[in-house]
Write a structure and sequence with these properties.
Layout (H helix, E strand, L loop, with lengths): L1 H20 L1 H13 L1 E9 L10 E6 L5 E5 L5 E8 L4 E7 L2 E2 L3 E3 L7 E3 L2 E2 L5
Parallel strand pairs: 1-8, 1-9
Antiparallel strand pairs: 1-4, 2-3, 2-5, 5-6, 5-7
Pfam families: CarboxypepD_reg (PF13620)
Keywords: Carboxypeptidase, Hydrolase, Protease, Signal
GO molecular function: carboxypeptidase activity
Length: 124
């Protein structure tokens, strides 16, 4: 019976030592968390497909209702990273008071990278 107690005690000490280092126990968890993150990128254009430099792209988290924004670069490009795979998002662009259609990203979609192009009808 004493040997069985020592064996359990030795396993417990080993488990505590491994947990205390953090690295070997937590690395797989960190890798899984990174794999579940998403990105969304794309371009903002007008109705003639010209890039809309300076358009503001909005990304709304439908769970917290927080909104992130990105100013499109000279090619009309934008990118949002580190998005949760368990959250729904809404995405749209605005330029000089005009707004694109709202696009959605569903938490049920298993993709990790989205390319969504937004078109703003400037009326010209």
């Amino acid at each position: 019976m004493k040997n069985a107690s020592r064996s359990r005690f030795g396993s417990l000490v080993l488990a505590v030592c491994l947990a205390g280092t953090g690295a070997s126990v937590l690395q797989p968890v960190a890798l899984m968390a990174q794999a579940s993150q998403r990105t969304v990128s794309g371009r903002v254009t007008d109705k003639s497909d010209a890039p809309m430099k300076g358009a503001i792209v909005y990304l709304k988290d439908d769970h917290t209702l927080s909104i992130k924004s990105f100013i499109a670069d000279e090619t009309g490009s934008f990118r949002f990273g580190q998005l949760s795979s368990t959250t729904d998002y809404e995405l749209w662009a605005e330029h000089n008071g005009k707004k694109s259609a709202v696009k959605t990203i569903s938490s049920f979609d298993s993709k990790t990278a989205f390319t969504i192009n937004l078109k703003v009808d400037t009326g010209s």
